[in-house]
Protein backbone atom coordinates (compact mmCIF):
# COMPACT_ATOMS: atom_id res chain seq x y z
CA UNK A 1 0.00 0.00 0.00
CA UNK A 2 1.54 3.31 -1.10
CA UNK A 3 1.99 6.24 1.28
CA UNK A 4 2.28 9.80 -0.13
CA UNK A 5 5.91 10.04 1.06
CA UNK A 6 7.12 6.66 -0.19
CA UNK A 7 10.10 7.03 -2.57
CA UNK A 8 9.55 6.42 -6.26
CA UNK A 9 9.61 2.78 -7.30
CA UNK A 10 11.47 1.22 -10.23
CA UNK A 11 8.25 1.18 -12.27
CA UNK A 12 7.64 4.85 -11.46
CA UNK A 13 11.13 5.78 -12.66
CA UNK A 14 10.43 3.90 -15.90
CA UNK A 15 7.09 5.67 -16.22
CA UNK A 16 8.70 9.08 -15.70
CA UNK A 17 11.39 8.36 -18.29
CA UNK A 18 8.76 7.10 -20.77
CA UNK A 19 6.71 10.28 -20.26
CA UNK A 20 9.77 12.44 -20.96
CA UNK A 21 10.57 10.46 -24.11
CA UNK A 22 6.98 10.59 -25.35
CA UNK A 23 6.31 14.27 -24.66
CA UNK A 24 9.70 15.88 -25.24
CA UNK A 25 11.91 13.31 -26.96
CA UNK A 26 14.20 13.00 -23.95
CA UNK A 27 16.38 10.03 -24.94
CA UNK A 28 20.02 9.12 -25.23
CA UNK A 29 22.38 9.91 -26.81
CA UNK A 30 21.34 13.57 -27.14
CA UNK A 31 19.67 13.92 -23.74
CA UNK A 32 20.65 13.04 -20.20
CA UNK A 33 18.53 12.89 -17.08
CA UNK A 34 20.20 14.55 -14.11
CA UNK A 35 17.64 13.57 -11.53
CA UNK A 36 14.10 12.29 -10.99
CA UNK A 37 12.48 12.48 -7.57
CA UNK A 38 9.11 12.29 -5.93
CA UNK A 39 7.28 15.61 -5.92
CA UNK A 40 6.16 15.39 -2.33
CA UNK A 41 2.53 16.34 -1.66
CA UNK A 42 1.70 19.34 0.47
CA UNK A 43 1.89 18.98 4.23
CA UNK A 44 -1.88 19.30 4.41
CA UNK A 45 -2.36 16.46 1.94
CA UNK A 46 0.07 14.24 3.85
CA UNK A 47 -1.65 15.01 7.15
CA UNK A 48 -5.07 14.21 5.65
CA UNK A 49 -3.97 10.86 4.22
CA UNK A 50 -5.49 7.74 5.70
CA UNK A 51 -4.65 4.12 4.98
CA UNK A 52 -6.50 2.97 1.91
CA UNK A 53 -6.79 6.46 0.37
CA UNK A 54 -5.85 6.88 -3.26
CA UNK A 55 -2.36 8.39 -3.52
CA UNK A 56 -1.74 10.72 -6.47
CA UNK A 57 1.89 10.41 -7.55
CA UNK A 58 3.93 13.17 -9.13
CA UNK A 59 7.58 13.39 -10.04
CA UNK A 60 10.01 16.20 -10.71
CA UNK A 61 12.80 15.71 -13.24
CA UNK A 62 15.84 17.75 -14.26
CA UNK A 63 17.07 16.90 -17.77
CA UNK A 64 19.30 18.54 -20.33
CA UNK A 65 19.89 18.53 -24.04
CA UNK A 66 23.57 17.75 -24.59
CA UNK A 67 23.50 19.37 -28.05
CA UNK A 68 22.38 22.79 -26.77
CA UNK A 69 23.39 22.45 -23.12
CA UNK A 70 20.02 23.82 -21.95
CA UNK A 71 18.51 22.16 -18.85
CA UNK A 72 14.79 21.78 -18.22
CA UNK A 73 12.75 21.12 -15.11
CA UNK A 74 9.78 18.86 -15.80
CA UNK A 75 6.76 18.23 -13.58
CA UNK A 76 5.18 14.84 -14.27
CA UNK A 77 1.79 13.56 -13.20
CA UNK A 78 2.40 9.82 -12.97
CA UNK A 79 -1.17 9.08 -11.90
CA UNK A 80 -2.61 11.03 -14.84
CA UNK A 81 0.20 10.02 -17.24
CA UNK A 82 0.88 13.60 -18.31
CA UNK A 83 3.54 16.30 -18.49
CA UNK A 84 2.39 19.16 -16.24
CA UNK A 85 5.23 21.67 -16.67
CA UNK A 86 8.38 22.08 -18.76
CA UNK A 87 10.61 25.02 -17.83
CA UNK A 88 13.92 25.92 -19.44
CA UNK A 89 16.82 27.18 -17.31
CA UNK A 90 19.37 28.56 -19.77
CA UNK A 91 22.83 29.47 -18.48
CA UNK A 92 22.55 26.86 -15.73
CA UNK A 93 24.17 23.45 -15.42
CA UNK A 94 22.46 20.44 -13.80
CA UNK A 95 24.33 18.23 -11.37
CA UNK A 96 27.07 16.02 -12.70
CA UNK A 97 26.19 12.35 -12.97
CA UNK A 98 27.83 9.03 -12.24
CA UNK A 99 27.44 8.07 -15.91
CA UNK A 100 29.41 11.14 -16.99
CA UNK A 101 32.15 10.33 -14.47
CA UNK A 102 32.59 6.82 -15.87
CA UNK A 103 32.24 7.92 -19.51
CA UNK A 104 34.90 10.59 -19.02
CA UNK A 105 37.30 8.19 -17.31
CA UNK A 106 37.01 5.68 -20.16
CA UNK A 107 37.17 8.26 -22.96
CA UNK A 108 40.22 10.06 -21.58
CA UNK A 109 42.23 6.91 -20.85
CA UNK A 110 41.69 5.90 -24.49
CA UNK A 111 42.48 9.35 -25.93
CA UNK A 112 45.80 9.33 -27.87
CA UNK A 113 46.87 12.72 -26.46
CA UNK A 114 46.29 11.50 -22.91
CA UNK A 115 48.09 8.23 -23.65
CA UNK A 116 51.05 10.27 -24.95
CA UNK A 117 51.01 12.60 -21.93
CA UNK A 118 51.04 9.61 -19.59
CA UNK A 119 53.85 7.96 -21.55
CA UNK A 120 55.88 11.15 -21.19
CA UNK A 121 55.54 10.68 -17.44
CA UNK A 122 56.69 7.06 -17.63
CA UNK A 123 53.19 5.54 -17.48
CA UNK A 124 52.93 3.07 -20.36
CA UNK A 125 49.75 1.24 -19.28
CA UNK A 126 46.73 3.60 -19.37
CA UNK A 127 44.56 0.89 -17.79
CA UNK A 128 46.33 1.63 -14.49
CA UNK A 129 45.30 5.30 -14.68
CA UNK A 130 42.20 6.81 -13.07
CA UNK A 131 40.72 10.02 -14.47
CA UNK A 132 38.76 11.75 -11.70
CA UNK A 133 36.33 14.48 -12.81
CA UNK A 134 35.67 17.65 -10.80
CA UNK A 135 33.34 20.51 -11.68
CA UNK A 136 34.12 24.21 -11.92
CA UNK A 137 32.84 27.34 -10.29
CA UNK A 138 31.98 30.03 -12.82
CA UNK A 139 34.82 32.35 -11.79
CA UNK A 140 37.42 29.60 -12.26
CA UNK A 141 36.14 28.33 -15.60
CA UNK A 142 38.75 29.04 -18.32
CA UNK A 143 37.60 31.86 -20.55
CA UNK A 144 38.09 29.79 -23.70
CA UNK A 145 35.59 27.19 -22.54
CA UNK A 146 32.78 29.32 -21.14
CA UNK A 147 29.33 28.37 -22.33
CA UNK A 148 30.16 24.66 -22.23
CA UNK A 149 29.51 21.94 -19.66
CA UNK A 150 33.08 21.51 -18.52
CA UNK A 151 34.89 19.27 -16.09
CA UNK A 152 38.51 19.29 -15.00
CA UNK A 153 40.25 16.03 -14.27
CA UNK A 154 42.96 14.83 -11.96
CA UNK A 155 44.89 11.80 -13.12
CA UNK A 156 46.04 9.07 -10.74
CA UNK A 157 47.92 5.84 -11.36
CA UNK A 158 47.88 2.44 -9.66
CA UNK A 159 50.87 0.22 -8.97
CA UNK A 160 48.71 -2.82 -9.78
CA UNK A 161 45.25 -3.34 -11.30
CA UNK A 162 43.56 -3.59 -7.87
CA UNK A 163 45.80 -1.32 -5.80
CA UNK A 164 44.95 2.17 -4.52
CA UNK A 165 44.90 4.75 -7.34
CA UNK A 166 44.85 7.63 -4.86
CA UNK A 167 48.32 6.65 -3.61
CA UNK A 168 49.98 8.16 -6.67
CA UNK A 169 48.75 11.39 -8.24
CA UNK A 170 50.09 12.26 -11.66
CA UNK A 171 50.70 15.71 -10.27
CA UNK A 172 50.80 18.76 -12.47
CA UNK A 173 48.74 17.08 -15.21
CA UNK A 174 45.18 18.28 -15.75
CA UNK A 175 42.62 17.39 -18.40
CA UNK A 176 39.81 19.79 -19.32
CA UNK A 177 36.83 18.02 -20.87
CA UNK A 178 33.51 18.97 -22.45
CA UNK A 179 31.22 16.59 -20.59
CA UNK A 180 28.45 16.86 -23.19
CA UNK A 181 30.65 15.62 -26.03
CA UNK A 182 33.46 13.96 -24.02
CA UNK A 183 35.84 16.08 -26.08
CA UNK A 184 39.29 16.72 -24.65
CA UNK A 185 39.49 20.50 -24.74
CA UNK A 186 42.90 21.01 -23.26
CA UNK A 187 45.77 19.31 -21.48
CA UNK A 188 47.34 21.58 -18.88
CA UNK A 189 50.80 20.68 -17.59
CA UNK A 190 52.11 22.58 -14.58
CA UNK A 191 55.31 20.55 -14.48
CA UNK A 192 56.20 17.14 -13.11
CA UNK A 193 57.22 17.00 -9.43
CA UNK A 194 57.69 13.25 -9.82
CA UNK A 195 56.08 10.34 -8.04
CA UNK A 196 57.79 9.82 -4.69
CA UNK A 197 58.14 6.30 -3.33
CA UNK A 198 55.28 6.48 -0.81
CA UNK A 199 53.44 3.78 1.09
CA UNK A 200 49.91 4.66 0.07
CA UNK A 201 48.34 1.22 0.20
CA UNK A 202 45.72 0.12 2.75
CA UNK A 203 44.45 -3.23 1.44
CA UNK A 204 46.40 -6.04 3.17
CA UNK A 205 47.46 -7.64 -0.12
CA UNK A 206 49.38 -4.50 -1.06
CA UNK A 207 50.80 -3.31 2.27
CA UNK A 208 54.45 -4.39 2.47
CA UNK A 209 55.04 -6.77 5.36
CA UNK A 210 51.42 -6.61 6.46
CA UNK A 211 50.56 -8.77 9.48
CA UNK A 212 47.10 -8.62 10.99
CA UNK A 213 46.74 -8.35 14.75
CA UNK A 214 45.99 -11.63 16.49
CA UNK A 215 44.81 -10.31 19.86
CA UNK A 216 41.25 -9.38 18.92
CA UNK A 217 38.64 -11.79 20.27
CA UNK A 218 35.17 -12.17 18.70
CA UNK A 219 32.48 -9.72 19.78
CA UNK A 220 28.95 -10.92 19.14
CA UNK A 221 25.77 -8.88 19.53
CA UNK A 222 22.61 -10.93 19.65
CA UNK A 223 18.93 -10.32 20.34
CA UNK A 224 17.58 -13.83 20.94
CA UNK A 225 13.98 -12.59 21.11
CA UNK A 226 14.35 -10.48 17.98
CA UNK A 227 14.45 -6.73 17.48
CA UNK A 228 12.33 -4.22 19.39
CA UNK A 229 11.36 -2.22 16.31
CA UNK A 230 8.96 -2.85 13.46
CA UNK A 231 9.22 -1.80 9.85
CA UNK A 232 6.08 -1.64 7.70
CA UNK A 233 7.21 -0.61 4.25
CA UNK A 234 8.98 2.67 5.00
CA UNK A 235 7.22 3.28 8.34
CA UNK A 236 9.39 2.66 11.41
CA UNK A 237 8.17 2.17 14.98
CA UNK A 238 10.54 1.83 17.91
CA UNK A 239 9.32 2.23 21.46
CA UNK A 240 7.62 5.67 21.46
CA UNK A 241 9.19 6.81 18.20
CA UNK A 242 7.25 6.99 14.93
CA UNK A 243 8.69 8.08 11.56
CA UNK A 244 8.96 7.30 7.88
CA UNK A 245 12.17 6.71 5.91
CA UNK A 246 12.70 8.28 2.50
CA UNK A 247 15.47 8.51 -0.06
CA UNK A 248 16.29 10.89 -2.94
CA UNK A 249 19.08 11.07 -5.48
CA UNK A 250 20.36 14.38 -4.13
CA UNK A 251 19.91 14.06 -0.36
CA UNK A 252 20.20 10.33 0.08
CA UNK A 253 18.57 9.35 3.38
CA UNK A 254 15.55 11.43 4.48
CA UNK A 255 13.50 11.13 7.69
CA UNK A 256 9.82 12.08 7.42
CA UNK A 257 7.12 12.71 10.03
CA UNK A 258 9.31 12.18 13.08
CA UNK A 259 7.15 12.04 16.19
CA UNK A 260 6.78 10.65 19.72
CA UNK A 261 3.77 8.51 20.60
CA UNK A 262 2.51 9.89 23.90
CA UNK A 263 -0.45 7.94 25.25
CA UNK A 264 -3.04 7.74 22.49
CA UNK A 265 -1.58 10.21 19.97
CA UNK A 266 1.70 10.86 18.20
CA UNK A 267 3.16 14.30 18.91
CA UNK A 268 5.01 15.69 15.89
CA UNK A 269 8.61 16.85 16.29
CA UNK A 270 9.89 17.28 12.73
CA UNK A 271 8.20 16.98 9.36
CA UNK A 272 11.40 16.29 7.40
CA UNK A 273 15.11 15.91 8.27
CA UNK A 274 17.83 15.66 5.63
CA UNK A 275 21.16 17.00 4.37
CA UNK A 276 20.70 19.74 1.76
CA UNK A 277 24.28 20.62 0.83
CA UNK A 278 27.90 19.68 1.48
CA UNK A 279 30.60 22.18 0.53
CA UNK A 280 34.22 21.01 0.57
CA UNK A 281 36.75 23.78 -0.19
CA UNK A 282 40.43 22.87 -0.34
CA UNK A 283 42.41 25.66 1.27
CA UNK A 284 45.42 25.45 -1.04
CA UNK A 285 45.84 28.11 -3.76
CA UNK A 286 48.46 26.18 -5.76
CA UNK A 287 47.53 25.17 -9.34
CA UNK A 288 46.92 21.56 -8.30
CA UNK A 289 44.16 22.54 -5.87
CA UNK A 290 42.86 26.05 -6.64
CA UNK A 291 39.74 24.67 -8.37
CA UNK A 292 39.16 21.91 -5.83
CA UNK A 293 35.88 22.94 -4.21
CA UNK A 294 33.14 20.32 -4.25
CA UNK A 295 29.40 20.66 -3.67
CA UNK A 296 28.93 16.96 -3.00
CA UNK A 297 25.14 17.16 -2.72
CA UNK A 298 24.36 19.79 -5.36
CA UNK A 299 26.98 18.74 -7.90
CA UNK A 300 26.85 14.96 -7.50
CA UNK A 301 24.12 13.77 -5.09
CA UNK A 302 24.49 11.70 -1.93
CA UNK A 303 21.84 9.28 -3.14
CA UNK A 304 23.65 8.53 -6.39
CA UNK A 305 26.85 7.86 -4.42
CA UNK A 306 25.26 5.66 -1.74
CA UNK A 307 26.78 2.18 -1.57
CA UNK A 308 25.52 -1.15 -0.25
CA UNK A 309 26.09 -1.98 3.41
CA UNK A 310 27.43 -5.30 4.61
CA UNK A 311 26.56 -7.19 7.77
CA UNK A 312 29.47 -7.48 10.20
CA UNK A 313 31.37 -4.67 8.52
CA UNK A 314 29.14 -1.60 8.33
CA UNK A 315 26.40 -2.90 10.63
CA UNK A 316 26.68 -5.19 13.64
CA UNK A 317 23.91 -7.02 15.44
CA UNK A 318 20.34 -7.86 14.45
CA UNK A 319 19.98 -5.79 11.28
CA UNK A 320 17.14 -4.88 8.98
CA UNK A 321 17.93 -3.27 5.65
CA UNK A 322 16.05 -1.07 3.22
CA UNK A 323 16.99 -1.08 -0.45
CA UNK A 324 16.92 2.12 -2.49
CA UNK A 325 16.01 2.62 -6.14
CA UNK A 326 17.43 5.44 -8.26
CA UNK A 327 18.10 5.76 -11.97
CA UNK A 328 20.82 6.33 -14.55
CA UNK A 329 20.95 9.20 -17.06
CA UNK A 330 18.62 7.32 -19.41
CA UNK A 331 16.03 6.94 -16.63
CA UNK A 332 16.59 3.21 -16.17
CA UNK A 333 16.11 2.11 -12.53
CA UNK A 334 19.22 1.27 -10.54
CA UNK A 335 18.80 -0.63 -7.28
CA UNK A 336 21.10 -0.10 -4.30
CA UNK A 337 20.84 -3.22 -2.17
CA UNK A 338 21.05 -2.66 1.60
CA UNK A 339 21.25 1.11 1.17
CA UNK A 340 19.88 1.87 4.65
CA UNK A 341 20.70 -0.02 7.85
CA UNK A 342 18.31 -0.20 10.81
CA UNK A 343 19.40 -1.61 14.15
CA UNK A 344 19.42 -1.09 17.92
CA UNK A 345 22.55 -0.42 19.95
CA UNK A 346 23.43 -0.44 23.62
CA UNK A 347 25.03 2.90 24.51
CA UNK A 348 26.06 2.65 28.15
CA UNK A 349 24.20 4.15 31.08
CA UNK A 350 20.99 6.09 30.44
CA UNK A 351 20.52 7.25 34.02
CA UNK A 352 21.77 6.18 37.42
CA UNK A 353 21.79 7.14 41.08
CA UNK A 354 23.21 5.38 44.10
CA UNK A 355 21.43 6.15 47.39
CA UNK A 356 23.02 5.36 50.74
CA UNK A 357 19.91 3.54 51.95
CA UNK A 358 17.99 2.43 48.90
CA UNK A 359 21.05 1.39 46.90
CA UNK A 360 21.54 1.80 43.16
CA UNK A 361 18.98 2.39 40.44
CA UNK A 362 20.43 2.26 36.94
CA UNK A 363 19.04 1.97 33.43
CA UNK A 364 21.05 1.19 30.34
CA UNK A 365 20.64 3.32 27.27
CA UNK A 366 19.46 1.87 24.02
CA UNK A 367 19.27 3.77 20.78
CA UNK A 368 17.69 3.18 17.38
CA UNK A 369 20.14 3.78 14.53
CA UNK A 370 19.24 4.62 10.93
CA UNK A 371 22.37 4.79 8.81
CA UNK A 372 23.72 4.96 5.31
CA UNK A 373 27.11 5.17 3.60
CA UNK A 374 28.29 7.36 0.74
CA UNK A 375 31.46 7.05 -1.35
CA UNK A 376 32.51 10.37 -2.89
CA UNK A 377 35.52 9.34 -5.01
CA UNK A 378 38.37 9.20 -2.47
CA UNK A 379 36.26 10.15 0.56
CA UNK A 380 33.68 8.15 2.53
CA UNK A 381 30.84 9.58 4.61
CA UNK A 382 28.84 7.47 7.05
CA UNK A 383 25.62 9.15 8.18
CA UNK A 384 23.81 8.09 11.35
CA UNK A 385 20.49 9.37 12.67
CA UNK A 386 20.03 8.05 16.22
CA UNK A 387 16.83 8.05 18.29
CA UNK A 388 17.13 7.81 22.06
CA UNK A 389 14.78 6.66 24.81
CA UNK A 390 14.84 10.11 26.43
CA UNK A 391 13.42 11.75 23.29
CA UNK A 392 16.75 13.00 21.93
CA UNK A 393 17.80 12.82 18.28
CA UNK A 394 21.48 12.70 17.35
CA UNK A 395 22.84 13.25 13.86
CA UNK A 396 26.39 11.98 13.41
CA UNK A 397 28.69 11.98 10.39
CA UNK A 398 31.88 9.96 10.17
CA UNK A 399 34.37 10.87 7.47
CA UNK A 400 36.95 8.34 6.40
CA UNK A 401 38.58 7.23 3.15
CA UNK A 402 41.69 8.60 1.51
CA UNK A 403 43.03 12.14 1.57
CA UNK A 404 44.06 13.94 -1.60
CA UNK A 405 47.85 14.19 -1.55
CA UNK A 406 50.39 15.98 -3.72
CA UNK A 407 54.12 15.46 -4.21
CA UNK A 408 56.48 18.43 -3.89
CA UNK A 409 60.09 19.31 -4.51
CA UNK A 410 62.12 21.53 -2.21
CA UNK A 411 60.23 22.97 0.73
CA UNK A 412 56.73 21.71 1.45
CA UNK A 413 53.96 24.24 0.69
CA UNK A 414 52.54 25.82 3.86
CA UNK A 415 48.96 24.87 2.95
CA UNK A 416 49.03 21.35 4.35
CA UNK A 417 50.91 18.68 6.29
CA UNK A 418 53.66 16.34 5.10
CA UNK A 419 52.31 12.80 5.40
CA UNK A 420 54.82 10.73 3.41
CA UNK A 421 58.04 11.08 1.46
CA UNK A 422 57.98 14.43 -0.40
CA UNK A 423 54.18 14.33 -0.19
CA UNK A 424 51.71 16.59 1.58
CA UNK A 425 47.96 16.61 2.14
CA UNK A 426 46.27 20.04 1.89
CA UNK A 427 44.12 21.58 4.61
CA UNK A 428 40.46 21.42 3.66
CA UNK A 429 37.00 21.74 5.17
CA UNK A 430 33.73 19.84 4.97
CA UNK A 431 30.63 22.01 5.53
CA UNK A 432 27.37 20.10 5.81
CA UNK A 433 24.04 21.92 5.76
CA UNK A 434 21.29 19.99 7.53
CA UNK A 435 17.75 21.00 6.60
CA UNK A 436 15.52 20.60 9.67
CA UNK A 437 11.87 21.14 8.80
CA UNK A 438 10.54 21.30 12.36
CA UNK A 439 7.00 20.79 13.63
CA UNK A 440 7.16 20.80 17.43
CA UNK A 441 3.70 19.80 18.62
CA UNK A 442 2.25 21.42 15.51
CA UNK A 443 3.20 23.81 12.71
CA UNK A 444 3.08 27.16 14.60
CA UNK A 445 6.60 27.37 16.04
CA UNK A 446 8.91 30.16 17.17
CA UNK A 447 12.68 29.78 17.33
CA UNK A 448 14.28 31.18 20.47
CA UNK A 449 18.00 31.90 20.74
CA UNK A 450 19.12 30.89 24.23
CA UNK A 451 22.49 31.54 25.88
CA UNK A 452 24.06 32.01 29.30
CA UNK A 453 24.71 35.55 30.57
CA UNK A 454 27.01 36.58 33.40
CA UNK A 455 25.61 39.40 35.58
CA UNK A 456 28.20 41.81 37.01
CA UNK A 457 29.41 41.56 40.58
CA UNK A 458 27.12 43.52 42.87
CA UNK A 459 25.05 43.31 46.05
CA UNK A 460 23.01 40.38 44.66
CA UNK A 461 26.08 38.68 43.16
CA UNK A 462 29.01 39.42 45.48
CA UNK A 463 31.24 36.58 44.28
CA UNK A 464 30.35 36.81 40.60
CA UNK A 465 28.91 33.30 40.56
CA UNK A 466 25.58 34.11 38.97
CA UNK A 467 24.63 32.82 35.56
CA UNK A 468 21.25 33.53 34.00
CA UNK A 469 19.66 32.53 30.74
CA UNK A 470 19.00 35.05 28.02
CA UNK A 471 16.21 34.03 25.65
CA UNK A 472 15.56 36.04 22.51
CA UNK A 473 12.84 35.06 20.01
CA UNK A 474 13.85 35.03 16.36
CA UNK A 475 11.03 36.94 14.70
CA UNK A 476 12.46 37.62 11.23
CA UNK A 477 14.17 35.11 8.96
CA UNK A 478 17.93 35.21 8.58
CA UNK A 479 21.24 33.93 9.91
CA UNK A 480 22.40 33.23 13.43
CA UNK A 481 25.93 32.52 14.68
CA UNK A 482 27.23 30.20 17.35
CA UNK A 483 29.03 31.70 20.36
CA UNK A 484 31.19 29.33 22.35
CA UNK A 485 31.71 31.82 25.17
CA UNK A 486 27.96 31.96 25.95
CA UNK A 487 27.13 28.36 24.96
CA UNK A 488 24.51 29.64 22.53
CA UNK A 489 21.84 27.24 21.30
CA UNK A 490 18.40 27.52 19.72
CA UNK A 491 15.04 26.19 20.84
CA UNK A 492 12.12 25.52 18.54
CA UNK A 493 9.13 26.33 20.73
CA UNK A 494 5.38 26.04 20.36
CA UNK A 495 3.98 29.03 22.29
CA UNK A 496 0.42 27.71 22.04
CA UNK A 497 1.32 24.43 23.76
CA UNK A 498 2.56 24.95 27.34
CA UNK A 499 3.86 22.04 29.36
CA UNK A 500 2.74 21.28 32.92
CA UNK A 501 5.05 23.98 34.24
CA UNK A 502 3.65 26.75 32.08
CA UNK A 503 6.50 27.09 29.59
CA UNK A 504 6.17 26.41 25.85
CA UNK A 505 7.04 22.91 24.73
CA UNK A 506 10.31 22.95 22.83
CA UNK A 507 13.10 21.03 21.16
CA UNK A 508 16.62 22.44 21.42
CA UNK A 509 19.17 22.40 18.63
CA UNK A 510 22.37 21.67 20.55
CA UNK A 511 25.21 22.80 18.29
CA UNK A 512 28.16 20.56 17.57
CA UNK A 513 31.05 20.84 15.11
CA UNK A 514 30.18 24.46 14.26
CA UNK A 515 33.24 25.51 12.25
CA UNK A 516 34.02 28.96 10.84
CA UNK A 517 34.27 29.44 7.05
CA UNK A 518 37.53 31.42 7.22
CA UNK A 519 36.87 32.68 3.69
CA UNK A 520 37.30 36.26 2.52
CA UNK A 521 33.87 37.69 1.60
CA UNK A 522 35.40 38.66 -1.76
CA UNK A 523 36.33 35.04 -2.48
CA UNK A 524 34.66 33.49 -5.52
CA UNK A 525 34.22 30.31 -3.47
CA UNK A 526 32.34 32.20 -0.76
CA UNK A 527 30.18 33.93 -3.38
CA UNK A 528 28.86 30.49 -4.39
CA UNK A 529 28.41 29.25 -0.83
CA UNK A 530 27.37 32.15 1.37
CA UNK A 531 25.21 29.68 3.29
CA UNK A 532 28.32 28.39 5.08
CA UNK A 533 29.05 31.89 6.41
CA UNK A 534 26.72 31.38 9.39
CA UNK A 535 25.99 28.56 11.83
CA UNK A 536 22.22 28.62 11.48
CA UNK A 537 19.62 30.10 9.17
CA UNK A 538 15.93 30.26 10.04
CA UNK A 539 13.33 30.53 7.28
CA UNK A 540 9.58 30.05 6.94
CA UNK A 541 8.69 26.85 5.15
CA UNK A 542 8.45 27.08 1.38
CA UNK A 543 8.20 23.84 -0.59
CA UNK A 544 10.41 25.27 -3.35
CA UNK A 545 13.21 26.39 -1.00
CA UNK A 546 15.25 23.23 -0.69
CA UNK A 547 18.85 23.91 -1.68
CA UNK A 548 20.77 26.40 0.52
CA UNK A 549 23.28 27.33 -2.20
CA UNK A 550 20.75 27.18 -5.03
CA UNK A 551 19.54 24.31 -7.18
CA UNK A 552 22.12 24.66 -9.95
CA UNK A 553 25.48 24.86 -8.16
CA UNK A 554 27.46 23.22 -10.96
CA UNK A 555 29.42 26.11 -12.57
CA UNK A 556 27.52 28.59 -10.40
CA UNK A 557 28.76 32.13 -9.77
CA UNK A 558 26.69 33.14 -6.74
CA UNK A 559 24.64 31.54 -3.99
CA UNK A 560 21.02 31.63 -5.16
CA UNK A 561 19.63 30.03 -2.01
CA UNK A 562 19.59 31.20 1.59
CA UNK A 563 21.03 34.73 1.15
CA UNK A 564 18.45 35.44 -1.57
CA UNK A 565 15.47 33.96 0.28
CA UNK A 566 16.22 35.61 3.60
CA UNK A 567 16.66 39.06 2.03
CA UNK A 568 12.85 39.23 1.99
CA UNK A 569 12.84 39.42 5.79
CA UNK A 570 9.73 37.28 6.21
CA UNK A 571 8.27 36.66 9.63
CA UNK A 572 9.19 33.42 11.39
CA UNK A 573 7.17 34.03 14.54
CA UNK A 574 4.43 31.45 15.20
CA UNK A 575 5.26 30.02 11.80
CA UNK A 576 6.06 26.77 10.04
CA UNK A 577 9.85 27.10 10.37
CA UNK A 578 12.85 25.45 8.76
CA UNK A 579 16.27 25.41 10.42
CA UNK A 580 19.38 25.15 8.25
CA UNK A 581 22.23 24.05 10.48
CA UNK A 582 25.82 24.32 9.20
CA UNK A 583 28.36 21.97 10.76
CA UNK A 584 31.34 19.98 9.65
CA UNK A 585 35.03 19.13 9.81
CA UNK A 586 37.96 21.54 9.76
CA UNK A 587 40.47 19.00 8.53
CA UNK A 588 44.09 19.77 9.27
CA UNK A 589 45.63 16.49 8.08
CA UNK A 590 47.60 14.26 10.41
CA UNK A 591 50.32 11.81 9.46
CA UNK A 592 48.03 9.21 11.07
CA UNK A 593 45.34 9.99 8.48
CA UNK A 594 47.51 8.37 5.80
CA UNK A 595 47.16 6.12 3.82
CA UNK A 596 43.55 5.69 4.98
CA UNK A 597 41.82 7.92 7.54
CA UNK A 598 40.55 6.67 10.87
CA UNK A 599 36.97 7.95 11.00
CA UNK A 600 36.64 11.60 12.01
CA UNK A 601 33.34 12.02 13.86
CA UNK A 602 31.14 15.12 14.16
CA UNK A 603 27.55 15.49 15.33
CA UNK A 604 24.75 17.70 16.59
CA UNK A 605 21.63 17.01 18.66
CA UNK A 606 17.95 17.82 18.82
CA UNK A 607 17.00 17.46 22.49
CA UNK A 608 13.63 17.92 24.21
CA UNK A 609 13.68 21.11 26.29
CA UNK A 610 10.32 21.23 28.04
CA UNK A 611 8.66 19.02 25.43
CA UNK A 612 7.94 16.58 28.26
CA UNK A 613 6.81 17.32 31.82
CA UNK A 614 9.62 15.21 33.31
CA UNK A 615 12.29 12.71 32.24
CA UNK A 616 10.48 10.55 29.64
CA UNK A 617 12.91 7.70 30.28
CA UNK A 618 11.74 7.03 33.86
CA UNK A 619 9.75 4.05 32.61
CA UNK A 620 12.64 2.30 30.85
CA UNK A 621 12.77 -1.25 32.17
CA UNK A 622 15.74 -2.24 34.37
Automatic annotation (TrEMBL):
The modification 2',4',5'-topaquinone is found at residue 379. It is an enzyme of class 1 (oxidoreductase). Residues 219-618 form the Copper amine oxidase catalytic domain. Residues 96-189 form the Copper amine oxidase N3-terminal domain. GO terms for molecular function: copper ion binding; primary methylamine oxidase activity; quinone binding. Pfam families: AGAO-like_N2 (PF21994), Cu_amine_oxid (PF01179), Cu_amine_oxidN3 (PF02728). Contains 1 topaquinone per subunit. Topaquinone (TPQ) is generated by copper-dependent autoxidation of a specific tyrosyl residue. Residues 9-82 form the AGAO-like N2 domain. One of its GO terms (biological process) is amine metabolic process. Keywords: Copper, Manganese, Metal-binding, Oxidoreductase, TPQ. Belongs to the copper/topaquinone oxidase family. Homodimer. NCBIfam families: PRK11504.1 (NF008559). This is Amine oxidase. It comes from Pseudonocardia hydrocarbonoxydans. The lineage of its organism: Bacteria, Bacillati, Actinomycetota, Actinomycetes, Pseudonocardiales.
